[in-house]
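ASSEMBLY PREDICTION REQUEST
Request ID: AP-0331
Submitted by: J.K., bench scientist
Number of chains: two
Total residues: 809
Priority: normal
Notes: Please return the full assembly, not individual chains.
Input sequences:
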Amino acid sequence: MSAHTASRRANFIEISWPIVRATVFAGAGYFAAAFGVAAIRHGSYMDQVSIVFGFALGLVGWLLGGGALEAWVLPWFGHENTWNEGHGITRFFRYNTDHKVIGVQYMWAAGFAFFAAGMIAMGMRAELFTPQLDFFTNRAWYNTAMSIHGSLMLFSVSVVAIVGGFGNYFVPLLVGADDMVFPQVNGISWWFVLPGIMALLLSPLLGGFETGWTGYAPLATTDEAGQLFYYLGVFSLGISSMLTGVNVIATAVYMRAPGLTWNRLPMFVWAMIVTSVLNVLWVPVIGVDMMMGVMDRVVPTAFFGAKGFPLLWQDLFWLFGHPEVYIIMLTSWGLWLEIIPVFTRKTLFGYRWAVIGFVVIALLSGTVWVHHMFTAVSAARLIPFMTDTEIISIPTGFIYLSVLGTLFQGRVRLTTPMLFALFSALNFLIGGGTGIFLADVPSDFQLQDTFFVVAHFHYTILGGMIFAWFAGIYYWFPKFSGRMYNEFWGKFHAWWMMVFFNLTFFTMFISGLNGMNRRIATYLPDLTRLNQFTSINAWAFGAGFFVALVNLLVSAYRGERAPANPWGGKTLEWATTSPPPHENFETIPIVRGDFYSYGDVEEPEMGVFPNPSLSPHQHTTGDD
Amino acid sequence: MPAPVTYEKLTARQVRMYWGGFWLLVLSESMIFVTVFAVRFLMAYANVAPDVDKLLGGLVTLIFVLSVAPARGAVNEIRKGNNDRAAGGLLATALRGTLAFAGVIVDFFTEKIPAASRFGESYFLAAGYHALHIVIGLVVLYALYSSARKGRFSVDNHWSVEAGVVFWNFVVILYIILYAIYFWV
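STATUS: Completed
Returned structure:
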């Protein structure tokens, strides 16, 4: 349906009506349930029970309005699927089953959340520009801003942008498949993301929440009703992660092209598989945690309250929360190892060791969570979790070994994606190195709850993952847009980000060591200079993203046409056109060699690199 | 009346990968209940509140167990391409499921355990999560029944019936475990 009308330019109504209809349905569902429950219980439509039922039915309405009505529910009951998946730009704003479209949907949703959460961070830096309270009207709003910033960045950017965006777009391409195993499930899973983002963003309507992204009880149990939107939003985002995880693993296991054996599998696919295993195993755990939080407010039960067991919240939260750090980082490491061999023209060093590193990290990631809770737990739990945490740096070392070994004596081309990948590796090194002080119990007791911690996790997540995300965006921009970005502005953005990122966050280590507390709107006057330096650099850092936005938007429409393989990469996504056709490959490719062997082939000319790992022979069908 | 349009033929490879993905989903769902059951023993140890309604719980369990046989029959029939008889089996399963669900709802409103007690909160957590799965399973069963009545399945494509029934069995097994560890242990 989509291909025939692709040349026609869509108007605004065509683009927006599925989202508008979904919003109307969501609103109708929300208020119907909220008023209905209020009437039955003789309560208010604004009390917490009404809100929870409202959210549940609102979510159903949102899914139905977005296209699930025609594409899911009616076909279930034996009717024809009458949903129009759209054409051109309209595809990105409606239910669609093409994994490439869904990848872009995830990326724009994550980009939107990144923008919103980033603007909130700018506001927080405005507040911290002076020691006293002046930018926000009271401390609770600062805390709410901080909480929304953290929740959005963690739950809807860092675990969504690469895993949902690149994962959906590139895993089928990298394994030579025409789509995911469950395209319908994939189509619906994106629709759980926006309700999650909107619930977090709209939580101030219910009074906001002050607990930060970790939602610690017992503070959470006495918080405003906005805490409910945190529980429900995170739950909704979790469903999306879980469904994507199932799809990615099944695709990588069952849909690999002929000849694509496990020891030829691209690094990014390995990273996505391991990440998805973590998603499938641990996301349900935090889902239960969130539901317990909801029950404490609406039933009410007493899981985490004054008579309850607040530590249980922390245990369940971090049982997911620490693997989440690896859900975030594994895919970033996959991107480094995907990008670095291409731009050094050298065979990937230690392929197997890097894969072993991924797997061992995933295994260990579920055994370290208590290091987030050292100051809250019994002494018996300190030493084992400190040891486990420090052991996990060994497999991480394998990945650095692979990066360094590949770079060693390579002919490095410092393009924008390569710069970002190297910067990401450097920043993560600082993030990981400072993590040792936090994993170590005696120093953690001193450093906990200070800006040292804030700086540490921003180095790993912002410096590591967001930089890797941009590396991926620039690396694959020619593939998904079909056009080249502007290299000068790309490099400018990379350097701008690197310089101001480090000026912003390195200062936080110092202010943290000097006693600057986290999650607090006011501070002692002698920390003013450091904080002002941080704020000014943070604003400059934030402004840098507009350079990227303009560059990428202008390039997407005006950039020069991209060849199929602009970088001379050997993985399968470069073997098809830019952008790839609906079915990805004209014929299913047959893999005959290693994706990362360089040096035994001639230096490619840009754009006309013949891919020796591929054969043009047609593979008869996908069936065996 | 025009001849019913059946779903497209599934290849062996498709069936294999659908099963693979489906079991991953079941694994993920199992993690929910592993967590919930662990919370139960963590919060309330092996204690059982004295006033749990063992009889009602037992009845619900019995109805659940009785719903498995017609589901099995539906799978056997659909493997032979017999839509009408499969529809009968699916409807019988769904009706028994609905009855069991009604029992669970009655239990929710008549249970005397205080929700804020150590045992009560973990009971309502588990039963609530399970009720959500009953609803999903029932929607799937009624949807399959509706499609089967329209003659949509064939010998070449009946995977969704098989998967729907396996999911229903998963729901039933979970309830048996739930009954054992919340009503007796």
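REVIEWER COMMENTS: The helical segments of chain B are 12-44, 54-79, 83-110, 118-149, 159-184.
SIGN-OFF: pending second reviewer
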